[in-house]
Structure formats: C-alpha cells, structure tokens
C-alpha cells in the first residue's frame, strides 16, 4: 500500500496537475504540498493543519477525504487522546506567595496608620475653638491673681 504522500502525488499526476495548481486550488503553500507528497508531516505546522491540508488536497484531486485521513492515521499510528492538564509550575505558586506577602505588608501598614490615628494624643492638633476655650479655663486663675496684684498696686499708689 502506498503512503499518503505517494497516493496523493499519483492522484495529482493522473489529473495532470502541477504542484502550483494544487497549491492554488487548496490554498496550501507549495512547500507544504511538497512536504505532504514526501510524507514529511513533522515539518508541517500542527496536526490540525496537516489534517486540513490533507482534506483540501483530497478534494482537489477527487479522492475521498476519509480514505486519505484513514491512510494518514494508519501511517502515523497516532492515538487520539484528550491531553491531561499539566500540573502548574512552581513559578505561579511563587508569584502567589509574593502577592500574599505584599498584601500582608500593605494591610499591616494600613492597620498601623489606623491605630496611630486612633491612639494619637489630641493636644497639638485640636481645633482652634477648643484650644482657646481651654486657655480661657486656665487663664481666670491667672487673671484673678493679676487683678489682685493690680488692685493692690493701685490702692498703694492711690494712698500715697
């Protein structure tokens, strides 16, 4: 039994078509048509493309697509298996650890800032209205003492 590439080349030659004509009819690059006929499937882009190229080639030369794909599959002995997901690499886990560490540091900074605002003494940053009333509360005792001294001084001066 002829290989897929030999089979397609024979069908093309029976139809008296050139590689350029097949390439134009299938919209497959001429270099890929040559690789198909030489059974160099590993040099073509992925498996899906190879199967698409083979179907197009089969239609162009008037051969059953299933026959061509059957020959291809039997020659390649490829089992169609759904690939299992690969275990994730260690880099995403490391990236996740870095992200958690950054989030922790930011939360610690925010917590410290909030705590400092709550526990900060209010003497220096009190509104002006409140600080003036506090000064007035302490001033009357000073003012009363001054008034007594001033009154005493006035009396002494007045009697002299």
Question: How would you sum up this structure, described in words?
Answer:
- The protein has 160 residues and is an all-alpha fold.
- It has helices spanning 4-14, 19-26, 30-37, 47-61, 65-76, 90-119, 128-159.
- The N and C termini lie far apart (146 Å).
- Helices cover 72% and strands 0% of the residues.
- Among the domains are: 4-76, 434 Repressor (Amino-terminal Domain) (Orthogonal Bundle), CATH 1.10.260.40; 130-160.
- The protein contains seven helices and no strands.
Q: Top keywords for this entry?
A:
160 residues; mainly alpha; 434 Repressor (Amino-terminal Domain); 0% strand
SS elements, strand count: 0
Ends distance: 146 Å
Q: Within the CATH hierarchy, at the fold level, what is the topology of the domain at 4-76?
A: 434 Repressor (Amino-terminal Domain)
CATH class of the domain at 4-76: Mainly Alpha
Main sheet: strands, sense, barrel = none
Radius of gyration: 47 Å
CATH architecture of the domain at 4-76: Orthogonal Bundle
Oligomer: single chain
CATH superfamily of the domain at 4-76: lambda repressor-like DNA-binding domains
Average residue pLDDT:
78
Please report which band the strand proportion falls in: under 5%, 5-15%, 15-25%, 25-35%, 35-45% or over 45%.
under 5%
Low-confidence stretches: none
What layout of secondary structure does this protein have?
Blueprint: H1 4-14, H2 19-26, H3 30-37, H4 47-61, H5 65-76, H6 90-119, H7 128-159
């Amino acid at each position: 039994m002829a290989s897929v590439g030999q089979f397609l080349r024979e069908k093309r030659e029976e139809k008296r078509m050139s590689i350029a004509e097949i390439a134009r009819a299938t919209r497959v690059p001429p270099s890929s048509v040559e690789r198909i006929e030489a059974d160099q499937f590993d040099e073509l882009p992925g498996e899906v493309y190879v199967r698409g190229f083979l179907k197009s080639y089969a239609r162009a030369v008037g051969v059953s697509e299933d026959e061509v794909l059957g020959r291809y599959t039997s020659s390649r002995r490829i089992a169609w298996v759904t690939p299992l997901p690969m275990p994730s690499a260690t880099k995403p886990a490391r990236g996740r650890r870095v992200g958690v560490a950054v989030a922790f540091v930011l939360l610690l900074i925010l917590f410290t800032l909030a705590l400092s605002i709550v526990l900060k003494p209010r003497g220096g940053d009190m509104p002006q209205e409140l600080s003036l009333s506090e000064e007035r509360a302490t001033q009357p005792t000073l003012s009363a003492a001054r008034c007594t001294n001033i009154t005493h001084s006035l009396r002494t001066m007045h009697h002299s």
